[in-house]
Amino acid sequence: MHSELTAQGSLLQRFGRKARFVLGEFRPKGELLTPFNILSLPLIVLGLFLIVYRFVYGLGSITNLSQSYPWGLWIGFDVVTGVAFAGGAYVVTFMVYILKLEKYRPITRATILNGFLAYLFYAGALLLDLGRPWNVINPIIGNSFGVSSVLFLVAWHFLLYMIAELIEFSPAIAEWLGLERLRRLLRKLTLGAVIFGITLSTLHQSGLGALFLMAKTKIHPLWYSEFIPVLFLVSSVFAGLSMVIFEGSISQRVFAPRHLPASPAADHAEIVFGLAKICCATMFVYLFLLGLVLVHGNHWALLGTGWGAWYLVEVLGFVLLPCVLFAHSLKVRSALLARVAALITMLGIIINRLNVSVIAFKWYEPVRYFPTWMEIEVSLAIVLLEIWVFRWVVKRMRVL
Amino acid sequence: MDRRDALKTLTLIGSTPLLAGTADGATRGGEEFVGVLVDTTKCEGCRSCEEACAAANKLPAPPKDDNVMASERVPTPGQWSVVNRYKTSKGEVFVKRQCLHCCQPACASACLTQAMLKTRQGPVIWREDKCMGCRYCMVSCPFDVPTFEYDKTVPKIGKCQLCYSRLRAGKKPACVEECPNEALLFGTRRELLEEARRRIYRNPDTYLHRVYGEHEAGGTLWLYLSAVPFEEIGFRKPVDNAPLPQLTKEFLYAVPVILTLWPPFLLALAKAIRGPKDKESEAGDAQ
């Protein structure tokens, strides 16, 4: 009896200690008045204000969305592009946990964290765009499953994949809390979560493309084909890995002194070259597929139009060029060049996803959609908020 | 939820979405689809259908002034039915526009909450308590029919419901009932198609030998007869004859295949490849 009480007491004490520890962790670490903070904080506050305003006065109060353009920047950039950038997590977990490519283990946790936060914030941004967000639980609970909808599949997969990524990342959280037994238990779930996560990613990365299959007569023929799902899946590989290269090179610079052993830069360069090689190869496959789609659709004549020029800018300037740059960076062993190629690739993905979802969508309309500054500001605030959370986690948990 | 439903639901979560609509596209659950035949040669543009629609659906009264027809209008959240005036090769033609109620609607197959629902009788209705306002129905509709209240805190999707509640009460759609010129005819879709062909056959020189809505988007419940090419009276949007849900069919059929084959393949691959960590014991960590 007595011992039981003390056991309970110590459990309570332990819980109290943990709670105090977690609360303490919310105190900022490091300098507060950095240029990044001074610049980003007002933007985040303004973004949050605009979000509140939008929920009170309706979507039309701060967006340029219309009956002709029901989806704008928030869907085209935040959700469709953001999820492509988050694709690095499923590719890297595939390489590390399935193919056992140990070389990439040092970047695994950062990539998973990045992927998880990307889904949390960018897929979460979907809620801002919903006219009736309180009904968002309908496709998850209740008897209103719209099972013939691609969006139903995408919504479920977002949710399940976020859980899978949380499980993949959870050992780092247990470590941070000093819960060794829980960490070991969670670690056993990793492979299952990875396999589940890769399967889900295959389906919803392509599913995001499949969303637009029914808009056949609305998307410019150079961007519409029945292969959109395949193109979205293949491009998510180099989109995600370019994000990993980009994010890694910044993290190295900002956080490196805290966690990494000696001479990390050389190791990281090797990782960058490995990723650059995969990017280069998948981009080549992607270009080949684009060629097939073009031939298959017999759209040669369209290349001579203004839209054709824009299409060529996307394909030649933002796929072929970075593909060549990746190859060249491997030849001259320049990590910097690989990073430049990664940046161009990312811009290309933004252009491609916006082309399909916004720019080439209803290309024939006399009055086109262009986002308001407020839509852009809210999107920016979401990105900055994600960086803040990423930084908070990286400074506290063993991520890098 | 009975056991069959539960089983069905389980298979469906993230796996085998089925397609809305039926193979022949004209019936559902054994009941025949109803519809409306619009004879644009008989319409005189009195716009009493607009008023009837507003009254029946508790929408704001449409503008009284006929000058609103000076420019082409489209249905809005507050006005689900509009009459347009066109100057054509055969003089002035008035055309009523509203949701066409596809036999296999893209909007309903796009809807992830079944808020947009193809009913057994045929009307495609919108259900307020289900809708989450994602506007995927608007992206998918080939005719750009559904509209959204962008200026409302609690927005609704607005479109013609084909007076579903009136049909359930055994009445005709309000617009059909109020039409003084018999330009609108209500009946089963099959009967209406027969009637449309009969009119073309009897008056081969009056009518264009085509019924708009017979094949468009896989067929629609609203059918149109015209004396002039349909492009001249506002039917300009390019629309395929294949039902739109078919466009996502192949992708959705691939889903259960990938969902069942990927995991065992990945697991086998993971087990087949022995990493350095496998040789050590538990000590090796995720980092």
Give a brief description.
With 400 residues, chain A is mainly α. Helices cover 73% and strands 0% of the residues of chain A. The radius of gyration of chain B is 24 Å and the shape is elongated.
Largest interface: A-B, 77 and 73 residues
Runs of chain B in which pLDDT lies below 50 for 5 or more consecutive residues are 7-24, 281-287
CATH superfamily of chain A: Formate dehydrogenase/DMSO reductase domain
Helix proportion of chain A? over 70%
Please explain how this structure is put together.
Helix content of chain A is about 75%, strand content about 0%. With about 400 residues, chain A is mostly helical. Chain A has one domain (about 40-395): Formate dehydrogenase/DMSO reductase fold, CATH 1.20.1630.10. Chain B has 2 domains: about 20-245, 2-Layer Sandwich (Alpha-Beta Plaits); about 245-280, no CATH class. In chain B, strands 10-3-11 form a 3-stranded mixed sheet. Chain B is elongated and about 85 Å long.
Topology:
The complex is a heterodimer of chains A (400) and B (287).
Chain A: H1 2-25, H2 35-57, H3 73-85, H4 88-98, H5 105-123, H6 126-129, H7 150-177, H8 180-188, H9 190-210, H10 228-259, H11 264-297, H12 306-331, H13 335-359, H14 373-394
Chain B: H1 3-12, E1 27-28, E2 31-32, E3 34-39, H2 48-56, E4 82-88, E5 91-97, H3 106-110, E6 116-118, E7 124-126, H4 136-140, E8 147-148, E9 157-158, H5 164-168, H6 174-178, E10 184-188, H7 189-202, E11 222-225, H8 249-272, H9 276-279
Parallel strand pairs in B: 3-11
Antiparallel strand pairs in B: 1-2, 3-10, 4-5, 6-7, 8-9
